């Protein structure tokens, strides 16, 4: 079994979010489920399991989804293709569920083994996360393109990815090396004020950037059509659940999520245009850079456009285009900058939501 | 309500036009409405590259008669997603 989700914060949620936006954070992800698939036909089998799995080549990663048979999203997922095996990492299913899913109907030639007992998942994120990785491994990592990976000398697999809008790396650490890897990372991160944090800062940053968060909108029983995740589905995918998504598409799906802001939003609130019901709030939290609440609304596609004000039971609900912040990583050039220059680099720039037009 | 209805229709029309433009200009094997309006255009999301960006900027500027990139040293906020491109086109036209 995978572990329980890590804590939302380690004591000071505001300071952890500020560290993520300013420098870098290191967060444990003990709830991730991880499976290794190897043997003849492993790539084809991955294509049956998740969209895009059949396209994996060694050295590549892929951000994908685990879908239920009705096309709804069960988990956020990554594939990591190595020479001898492909790893499937899922956020939204537990270890037993993912393992059962990967083994059900698998060709006898394949080995499908749990990774969770022997690997631990961590994520390193922030505008200077790359500098921590460069100090931890080598300066060469700053050129690592998104969705590629490498292995460090201590056997940690590092995938360049992220859901916060900042530089990000998913670290799959050998469990027997975890204490020493954390010590090394802590030492490497000290010059850039690396902060250990809980998952809450990641969730907030994901919301502000309209990045999918499986423990929030991922629990709403929606398909990639409503979640604006069609880009995760290659056109000709035969993976489980994709046929159902195509059926929904062909019959015309009617709703789509989008970012909203209002003086008071709560999950479940209805959203109306006059007497016409448009949808409901499916996620809400205080806006960390200003007044009111930000969230996600599932609205009729005809009305799910940014720049409009609809009505909720507690006040107006303003639709917004993503993102709600200009991330500091957009101003940081690893080839030109370092932490010692950070005072000259602009901070994260939040949108003025009270005056936002779109 | 009528002005909101008109504004919704205008916004939807510009979005549909930009979705079609992206598919045509970048030769994507996708239906235009498969391009999610808030999905990132670069990095993750549609994973366009810098050459795609140049083609997209030229196509949008020609189609709508607006400048998309004003300051080459500033983050290209308008190119974050299709919706930010629509924001930019509508704001430039108003």
- For the record, the CATH class of chain B is Mainly Alpha
Rg of chain A: 21 Å
The fraction of residues assigned to DSSP E strands of chain A is: 25-35%
Strand content of chain B: under 5%
Largest sheet properties of chain B: none
CATH superfamily of chain B: ACP-like
Q: Write down the oligomeric state.
A: heterodimer
Morphology call of chain A: globular
Please estimate the helix content of chain A. Answer: 10-25%
Q: How would you spell out the order of helices and strands of chain B?
A: HHH
**Global structural class of chain A:** alpha+beta
Number of helices of chain A: 7
Whole-number count of domains of chain A? 2
Number of domains of chain B: 1
**Ends distance of chain A:** 44 Å
Shape of chain B: globular
Order of helices and strands of chain A: HEEHEEEHEEHEEEHEHHEEEEEEEE
Query: Mean pLDDT score of chain B, rounded?
Result: 87
Annotated CATH architecture of the largest domain in chain A: 2-Layer Sandwich
Tell me what you see in this structure:
The complex is a heterodimer of chains A (358) and B (94). In chain A, helix 4 packs across helix 5. Chain A is globular. Chain A has seven helices and 19 strands. In chain A, the strands form four sheets. Chain A has a six-stranded mixed β-sheet, sandwiched between helices. Chain A has 358 residues and is of the alpha+beta class. Chain A folds into two domains: 13-205, Gyrase A, domain 2; 210-322, Elongation Factor Tu (Ef-tu), domain 3 (Beta Barrel). Helix content of chain A is 18%, strand content 30%. Chain A has helices spanning 13-22, 42-49, 95-103, 129-136, 178-189, 200-208, 242-250; strands at 25-28, 33-38, 61-67, 73-81, 85-91, 111-114, 119-125, 149-151, 157-160, 168-174, 195-197, 255-262, 270-273, 276-286, 293-300, 309-312, 315-320, 325-326, 349-350. Chain B is an all-alpha fold and 94 residues long. Chain B has a single domain (2-93), classed as Non-ribosomal Peptide Synthetase Peptidyl Carrier Protein, Chain A, CATH 1.10.1200.10. In chain B, helix 1 crosses helix 2 and helix 1 packs across helix 3. The longest helix of chain B is centred in the first third of the chain and has 24 residues, at 2-25. The relative contact order of chain B is 0.17. The model of chain B has no long low-confidence stretch (mean pLDDT 87). At the A-B interface, strand 12 of A face helix 1 and helix 3 of B.
């Amino acid at each position: 079994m995978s572990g329980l989700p890590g804590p939302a914060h380690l004591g000071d949620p505001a300071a952890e979010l500020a560290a993520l936006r300013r420098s870098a954070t290191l967060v444990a992800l003990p709830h991730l489920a991880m499976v290794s698939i190897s043997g003849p036909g492993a790539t084809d089998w991955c294509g049956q399991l998740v969209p895009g799995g059949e396209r994996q080549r060694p050295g590549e990663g892929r951000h994908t989804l685990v879908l239920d048979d009705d096309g709804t999203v069960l988990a956020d997922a990554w594939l990591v293709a190595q020479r001898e095996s492909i790893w499937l990492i899922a956020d939204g299913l537990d270890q037993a569920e993912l393992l059962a899913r990967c083994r059900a109907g698998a060709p006898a030639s394949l080995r499908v083994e749990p990774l969770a007992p022997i690997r631990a998942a961590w994520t390193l994120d922030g505008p200077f996360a790359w500098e921590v990785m460069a100090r931890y491994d080598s300066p060469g990592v700053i050129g690592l393109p998104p969705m590629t990976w490498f292995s460090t000398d201590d056997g940690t697999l590092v995938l360049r990815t992220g859901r916060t809008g900042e530089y990000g790396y998913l670290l799959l650490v050998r469990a027997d090396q975890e204490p020493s890897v954390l010590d090394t990372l802590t030492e490497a991160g000290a010059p850039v004020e690396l902060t250990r944090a809980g998952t809450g800062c990641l969730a907030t940053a994901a919301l502000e950037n309209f990045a999918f968060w499986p423990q929030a909108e991922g629990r709403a029983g929606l398909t990639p059509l409503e979640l604006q995740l069609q880009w995760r589905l290659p056109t000709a995918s035969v993976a489980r659940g994709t046929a159902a998504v195509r059926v929904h598409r062909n019959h015309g799906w009617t709703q789509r999520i989008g970012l909203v802001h209002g003086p008071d939003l709560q999950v479940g609130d209805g959203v109306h245009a006059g007497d016409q019901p448009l949808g409901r709030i499916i996620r809400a939290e205080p806006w960390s850079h200003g007044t009111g609440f930000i969230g996600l609304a599932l609205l009729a596609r005809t009305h799910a456009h940014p720049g409009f004000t609809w009505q909720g039971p507690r006040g107006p609900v303003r639709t917004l285009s993503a993102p709600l912040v200009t991330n500091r990583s957009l101003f940081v050039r690893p080839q030109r900058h370092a932490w010692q220059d950070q005072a000259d680099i602009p901070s994260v720039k939040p949108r003025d939501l009270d005056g936002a037009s779109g | 309500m009528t002005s909101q209805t008109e504004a919704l229709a205008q916004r939807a029309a510009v979005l549909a036009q930009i979705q079609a433009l992206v598919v045509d200009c970048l030769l994507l094997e996708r239906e235009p409405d498969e391009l999610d309006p808030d999905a990132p255009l670069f990095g993750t999301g549609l994973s366009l590259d810098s050459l795609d960006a140049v083609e997209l900027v030229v196509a949008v500027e020609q189609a709508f008669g607006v400048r998309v990139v004003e300051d080459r040293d500033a983050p290209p906020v308008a190119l974050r997603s299709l919706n930010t491109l629509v924001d930019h086109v509508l704001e430039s036209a108003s």
